[in-house]
Input
Amino acid sequence: MHNPTIISLGGSIVIPDAIDTAFVKSFRELILKHVQAGERFIITVGGGKVCRRYQEAAKELGMPSQEELDWIGIRALMLNAQLIRSVFGEVAHDTVIIEPSELHNTTTPVVIFGAKAPGHSTDFDAVEAAHETGAKRVINLSNIDYAYDKDPREFPDAKKIETTTWKEFRKILPAKWSPGVNAPFDPVAAKRAEELGLEVAIMNGKNLINLESYLEGKSFLGTVISR
Output
C-alpha cells in the first residue's frame, strides 16, 4: 500500500465566513480523482472563522485559560472535520480519528484525522500523521500563496519564499505555538517535521489547479521546505 499524502486543510478555506460549499465540492472531486489513480490521503481540518468567533466570545465573556481556548478550537475543528468526512462518504474512514496510533488500522483511501487534546495545531497533527504512516510529504493549504520572510501585511518589503531548508525556515517562526498564532506553519510542527525529514509544501488552497500540479509533480506556486 502506498504511503499517503497528508493534507492540512486550513479552516479559513473551508469557512472563510460561511461554509464554502463550492470549494468543498471541488476539493472532493480533486481528491477522488487521485483516489481513483490509487492514491491515499489523510486530511486534517482547521477551525476557521467558527473557531475564532467562539474563542473571541469566550474572551469577552470572561478570562478563559489557554487550555480552555484550545478546547474550544478543538470542538470547532472537529465539527469541520466531520463535515469533510461526510462529503467523502464510503471512500472515507467511518469516523474522524483522533488517536494517531489508529491510523495504522485504516485502509480506506481517505482518512480524516482530528485533534485529541490541547497544545497541538492541525499542522502538528498533520506532521504526526506523517510520522505514524511513513508519509514523506505534507501539504499545508491556507489562504496565502507563499510563506514570506516576514508578515507582508505589515512589511511591504517582505520577500516570498519558494524553496528553503527547515533550518532557515524555522528562523522566521515564533519560538512557541499558541492558539491563533500568526505564522505560516506551527513552530512546534516545524521542529518535528525537520526531525522526520519531511517535505512540507505551503500553498493557497483555493487554487485547486495549483494543488493538482503539485500532486502530479509539476511546477506550482508555493513554498517548499525540506532538508
About this structure: The longest strand covers residues 137-142. The two ends are 26 Å apart (CA to CA).
